[in-house]
Amino acid sequence: MKLNTKRTILVGFAFMSISAFWQMYDSVIQKVLKYDFGIGDTAVGAVMALDNILALFLLPFFGMLSDRTRTKFGKRTPYIVFGTLSAVVLMGFLPVSIASQSLLFFMVVLFLLLVAMSTYRSPAVALMPDVTPKPLRSKGNAIINLMGSLGGVLMLVLTKLLLVTREDGSEVYTNIIYAVAIFMVVAVVIVVLTIRENRLSEETAAINDAYDGEPEKQAVAADHSKASLKAMDPAVRKSLFLILGSVFFWFMGYNAVTSAFSRFVQEQWGLGLGSASNLLLVANAAALICFIPIGILSSKFGRKRVIQFGVSLLALSFLAFALYPSYNFSIYIILALVGVAWASINVNSYPMVVEISKSGDVGQFTGYYYTFSMAAQAITPTVSGFLMEHIGYHTLAPYAAIMVAISLITISLTKHGDSKPIPPKSKLEAYDAGDD
To answer: Domains in the chain, ordered, with CATH?
Structure first.
């Protein structure tokens, strides 16, 4: 049994469009708030956390709702189409609201835009495991994350090409916002035209049923019933919450940096958005190169071990980052290591969560994953923003390193969610899961 690479790439266009949007959001919105509307870092952090607060409630809800949806287009596709189109329409009003200099108008548009994005994020992410057999999900997630990084890189390149700087040094983001909106439409059209969700989901469910039925998997499969945490074996449930706790802490660290990066480099090093994009491109490029090799290594050595490596490297990289109070070329090396570390974590964390799920409740377990990741991202921009505003920008990297280091403890205690190599003579080989 081998991964259908072409199909996974096509599915990945949905995540690619989402990643392009959030890269734009993280880079642009914080600067609009601070420099166009003149609000402080703590308040900027609170606003930057708004999408994650909404996600705490909306992502699990739409994940579970999509599990129960049945249409001729599939259970995830309708949400992906509706959410994308709604978000794109609202993005058209963003530059207008910025130009109006009305913070209230801007916040209303931003709030509605974040709601629109929340309606389809869980369904879009759940589409990959829906059409990918369990043993292949780390490899599949590697490709999905590769596509996501390409979306982020595309946005960073567009930022450099389309950013307009006025004579007074202020920046205009209109062209960037519209370019990302157009790309989101194109990406989702590709998904809709190439992925036959219902047929592929049925085929994958049959493969997963056979996989769960193998002797070494029967115990885990019997430990919980669909959509019921209480019915899970206590050891499996403990592992699930340890994985989710790990997700919480490494996002506390990582998102503290990403949600403040463009402000940090301007205040600490005197660099504008274009230079910040160059730095982020290095991290994204490093992750881009590593996703596929990490997916292969994860299948060989296990998801947990690769995550432990990634978490350790990320904490050390953030500590090294703290040693540079001023700009230095060595920072590019550190950011490359951050990209490798984050790829090692990101390829494996979501598959560890859905490994414990059944075919019918992938959306619900996707919701669990996003509940914990978004809870962290709802809290950490405000906390790190408060530290930067009242103590100094030098607190950002040590704070991030401490949060990530805690996740190393929790993931090391996890006993379930890993996957074992499939024996070559397995009955699963009867199923054609390869490229076509």
So the answer is: 5-200+218-415 (1.20.1250.20)
